[in-house]
Design goal:
- The protein is an alpha/beta fold and about 600 residues long.
- Helix 5 links the parallel strand 2 (about 110-115) and strand 3 (about 140-145).
């Protein structure tokens, strides 16, 4: 039995209700997005061939066209296949306009589909029968099957919008047994990668030499593990990306940003087109880059995806994610914390000011508005002595973690019943065993902070370069990236435009907002050597912070939004002075491409 949660990207609005679509990774594919696949993958390559063919070559070209097969391996209700059928008919019409004696030959059976959803398959067959006037039932060409566990029919082009499912939801929504089966079938696909990676790899493997494919994915396809498992894998195995959409807002009710990737199995001498949508709204403007090569990062800038982690970047470790409580009851407001302290001043030992991303960006002084309950290494008996905080967690956290552990146990039992080799998850069982403690306390982070008067933090998901010093007595939340530096020179490098460009080029993304991670950004960032420019960097950094605080009456986020609309603001000059000082530390000139210089330095330091 295939799990209901694993379904294709359905195209017909009656196929799934809105609640099911989100859980299943299914999103309707609209006409404009279909054309962003079909134009570069099917229509334009054929149109170039038709235009270049001599009259004597047209019959052979027509014979090839009527044998040409298009596959959507996650076809849903058939929107891609229906559009592909119309595209084949359009191409035949263009051929026959040059050679009227050629008979009609395109058939609906040239459009092949697979999908796990039986109702969607019925809709796809009906749509293609209606469009073609062919009364056949199409059971041999539009097949009810799981594309990840069935052979794909031979095809010359592969198109579609396969399901995407982030790694952190895969187990709960696909099911433990299905996930275990999937990983045994595809051991080379890392568990951190998005679910849609399987379709990219299978599509490329199924293409004949010179075959083309075009698939829709979330824009995480160009990030980190998902990029390495999909686009880098394809390029390493002979793919050339011919046209792509780096990122765009998905124009239905799904809160998601997507990438669209079209490639050929082999070389392509033609210029490559890379599109970017410049905003969060579906009607935001577009920019097109004409490139000689589109890299796996789907970026028009210097490709830094090949940068290596640098020796010593984690020795000692200086870049951390903040603390993850694991339940909202661990975080309380000022009023409740004050009441507990009045009741028992000893509660101060387990209550800590707790900074979240919104506090950092929106509070005028970036001060925390919440407190964290953290019993540290105290056992249950020791924790119970702090009566009111303990009772609060016992009332709210214990029931939630008990329920989560019970659900996990039931999933494990179901997986074992289906497959005794299925991996058993102990995630929630472990949380329950120490339910009065935060899920991820980050002991190594706290040990580093204990030796510092202050640290640097930024929001982990951000579209603006905002770094700030935070007192070490304040606990950072998990929405913050923490850098355990207390000196102005380190702040200046992190706040510089050079570090920001590296961040943008290397980061993963949540919607359109880049996400800072130590693994993808910091570990590969090549710092400048200490030297004579350090004092200048430190002085420029200190000046920038003073100027910023002088103007940040409504918080740092509001200030930076204001800066974007105010080119003459004095803070621009302060940032420019800092950037110039950092550039001099790298030995850069104004003519140098910062990413190229940083990438070359990364290569030297990692060799």
């Amino acid at each position: 039995m295939l799990p209901e949660a694993h379904t294709s990207a359905l195209d017909h609005p009656r196929t799934l209700d809105p609640r099911d679509r989100h859980a299943r990774g299914a999103h309707y594919t609209l006409a404009a997005e279909i054309q962003r696949v079909l134009q570069p993958t099917l229509l334009r390559p054929w149109q170039r061939r038709i235009a270049a063919a001599s009259p004597s070559e047209l019959p052979a070209l027509h014979a090839e066209l009527v044998r040409f097969r298009v596959l959507d391996p996650a076809c849903g209700a058939g929107n891609f296949l229906l559009a592909a059928y119309h595209a084949l008919n359009q191409l035949e019409a263009e051929l026959r306009a040059r050679a009227p004696h050629l008979p009609p030959g395109v058939r609906v059976t040239q459009c092949l589909g697979l999908d796990i959803d039986a109702h969607a398959i019925a809709l796809a067959r009906a749509a293609l029968r209606a469009a073609s006037g062919d009364p056949s039932d199409l059971t041999a060409t539009i097949v009810h099957a799981d594309a990840l566990f069935t052979p794909w029919p031979p095809a010359d082009a592969i198109v579609g919008n396969p399901p995407f499912q982030a790694k952190n939801k895969a187990r709960s929504e696909l099911g433990a047994a299905y996930l275990a089966r999937l990983r045994r079938r595809y051991p080379d696909v890392p568990g951190r990668a998005d679910h849609c990676v399987h379709w990219f790899r299978l599509a490329h493997a199924a293409l004949p030499p010179g075959g083309r494919a075009g698939l829709v994915a979330t824009n995480t396809i160009r990030d980190n593990d998902t990029r390495r498992a999909s686009l880098e894998h394809l390029i390493a195995h002979g793919a050339t990306i011919t046209e792509a959409v780096a990122t765009q807002v998905w124009p239905d009710d799904a809160v998601v940003h997507v990438s669209i990737v079209n490639w050929i199995k082999g070389e392509s001498p033609d210029p490559k087109l890379l599109w970017e949508q410049l905003g969060d709204a579906p009607d935001a403007p577009w920019r097109c880059h004409q490139l000689s090569t589109i890299p796996a990062s789907l970026s028009p800038r210097v490709d830094v995806t090949g940068a290596r982690d640098l020796p010593g970047s984690d020795h000692p470790k200086v870049c951390f994610q903040g603390q993850t409580p694991g339940h909202r009851a661990f975080v309380v407001d000022h009023a409740l914390a004050a009441a507990w302290l009045r009741d028992d001043p000893n509660n101060r030992a387990v209550l800590f000011p707790y900074l979240i991303g919104d506090d950092l960006l929106d509070a005028p002084d970036s001060a925390p508005s919440r407190w964290l309950i953290d019993f540290g290494d105290r056992d249950l008996a020791e924790a119970r002595r702090h009566r009111l905080p303990f009772a609060h967690l016992e009332a709210h956290v214990l029931p939630a973690r008990s329920a989560a552990a019970a659900r996990e146990s039931a999933r494990n039992a179901a997986a074992a019943a289906e497959d005794p080799r299925a991996r058993q998850n102990a995630h929630h069982r472990n949380f329950l065993a120490r339910w009065w403690r935060p899920a991820y306390r980050r002991d190594d982070l706290l040990a580093a902070l204990s030796r510092l008067p202050r640290y640097i933090a930024c929001s982990r998901v951000t579209r603006r370069p905002i770094f700030e010093f935070i007192p070490a007595t304040v606990r950072p939340g998990d929405a913050l990236q923490v850098f355990t530096f207390a000196d102005d020179r380190a702040f200046g490098v992190l706040q510089s435009d050079l570090h920001w460009q590296w961040f943008l080029a290397r980061s993963s993304a949540l919607k359109l907002d880049p996400r800072y991670t130590s693994r993808s950004v910091y570990s590969s960032f090549p710092w400048p050597d200490p030297g004579i420019h350090d004092a200048t960097i430190a002085a420029a950094a200190e000046h920038l912070r003073r100027e910023r605080r002088r103007h940040a009456h409504a918080g740092l986020r509001a200030l930076h939004r204001h800066l974007e609309a105010t080119p003459s603001h004095p803070l621009h000059a302060a940032q420019a002075d800092l950037d110039a000082a950092v550039r001099r530390a790298y030995g850069m000139t104004d003519r140098d491409d910062p990413l190229a210089v940083l990438l070359a330095r990364n290569a030297r330091l990692s060799s």
